[in-house]
Amino acid sequence: MLCISFESIAQPKITLTETTIDVGEILEGLDYDLTWHFKNAGDSVLEMGCVKTSGSILTGEYAHKRVSPGAESKITGKLTTTGWGGQPFRKSLLVQSNSKEDILLVVKGFIREAPIGEVQKPASGKTSFSNTEELITQASGATSYNVQPGDILFQDLDCGAACDAIESVTEGANGMDFSHCGIVVQMGNEMMVVEAYGAVKVTPVDSFLMRSKDAAGKPKVLIGRLKDESILADESAEIAKGYVGKEYDESFDLKNDKYYCSELVYECFKVANKNKPFFQLNKMTFKAPRTEAIMPFWMDYFKKLDKAVPEGKPGINPGAMSRSDKLQIIALQSL
């Protein structure tokens, strides 16, 4: 969009009924059209300048370059969601003109991950939103489960050789094999999971659970809930939200401000516990069970990173954490 410089003693004025559009929960992979209707409530011609965006997933433009006094017009935007699944978002457009003040238009919501193979169709049937309609929070149709903020969800994640290598090292609670975990948080009226999965992000509980199921179709997940520290659990959940956007720790290094799944959980509870470790770290091992040989998977993995295998370095994995005496293990149930 061409930016226009101008000087004017006129007094146009942009008025809007609402500057923020809350799209609620939308599905990844679709483009959404946004419209902000406005009126020139001033007494001279409104001349539009620039529409600047705060991020690459949102673009915007004005419908008319000049808007007469008393006339109505609109700013349109397009929200592109591909690659942003599992994340809350808040993006803005800065509208500049010869009006006395610039206008900040905001769009916010949550982009739900589109499961592999699912037909990409928005839950509400809507792909367009306006600031003049009744704001709608789209229903996700999600099932409710017996989870609460601060719960740790331990998951037997079926991801191939990587998960098999993780699960072979430490047996989890109740004899299960766990290769992943995340912290339950509350956002608005919804329960979500903050997890280090590619990066630290927020995922709806339903999306988290559907990743791996047993032969009966039930999620391969157990809940770890603190026995005595409900306040600490709540604080840990709130702290977890602040880590969203951090990079995944592919080298399993506790000091690089990147996080793998159980490291993220460990760190959040540590910070909530006045920066004192709440869960116990262990010496990491990448050796095949009952041998002294590093598993071929890990040899190849760290070779590609050009790093030494961190055998014996401090760390933590989902299986070991699930067996902590500070947790009670609870079966997952739909409500």
Give me the count of strands. 18
User: Taking strands numbered 1, 2, ... along the chain, how are they ordered across the largest sheet?
Assistant: 14-13-12-11-15-18
CATH superfamily of the largest domain: endopeptidase domain like (from Nostoc punctiforme)
* Category by helix and strand content: alpha+beta
- Biggest sheet layout: 6 strands, antiparallel
CATH class of the largest domain: Alpha Beta
Shape: elongated
Number of domains: 2
Helix fraction bin: 10-25%
Q: Which residues sit in consecutive blocks of at least 5 with pLDDT less than 50? A: 1-8, 116-125, 134-141
Give, in order, the helices and strands: EEEEEEEEEEEHEEEHEHHEHEHE
Mean pLDDT: 84
Can you characterise this structure?
The chain has 335 residues and is α+β, with helices and mostly antiparallel strands. It folds into two domains: 14-130, Immunoglobulins (Immunoglobulin-like), CATH 2.60.40.10; 152-331, endopeptidase domain like (from Nostoc punctiforme) (endopeptidase fold (from Nostoc punctiforme)). 16% of the residues lie in helices and 32% in strands. A six-stranded antiparallel beta sheet has the order 14-13-12-11-15-18. Strands 1, 3, 5, 7 and 10 form a five-stranded mixed beta sheet that branches. A five-stranded mixed beta sheet has the order 2-9-8-4-6, with no helix packed on it. Strand 8 (87-97) and strand 9 (103-112) form a beta hairpin. Helix 3 (230-241) packs across helix 4 (261-272). The longest helix is centred in the C-terminal third of the chain and has 12 residues, at 230-241. It is elongated, with a radius of gyration of 25 Å. The N and C termini lie far apart (51 Å).
